[in-house]
Amino acid sequence: MEFVAHPKDLPLDIEIIEDQSFPTVSTDRNGFVGITYLASSPFKAGTSVKITLEEIDPHFCVTGRIVWCDNERDEYRIAIEFPNKEDCYCVRMVEQLSQIEHYRRQAKFQGRRLNYNEAAAEWIQQFAASFPAFTV
Prior knowledge:
This protein has helices at 85-109, 116-127, and strands at 2-5, 13-17, 32-39, 48-53, 57-72, 75-81. By secondary structure, the chain is of the alpha+beta class. The chain has a single domain (2-130), classed as Thrombin, subunit H, CATH 2.40.10.
């Protein structure tokens, strides 16, 4: 199981949902299964959540499940898995877009102005091969 750390400069909106259940998922899943994120408040493992990411895609909305939550200074690092294959695939794609936007912002901070396509080309060349694969 591989989780990708979501960039903190692209805030997720995470909302607890009460009526969502997920199928039991094997712990030996391979490849991309979810994301980690630094949240301002703790979440209980097993909690179902709805996630939106307005800054990347205003229509993006998926449900996931909190796998673990660790206190990290004044924040909480949470791991969110996406047991539904379609949602997991969608999150992986959106996460790549998030990583590219984060890369573009870092370049700007370093004095390099890149448009999104330039940042995407550089990110793909440098990081795409090490990004966790989606396996069914």
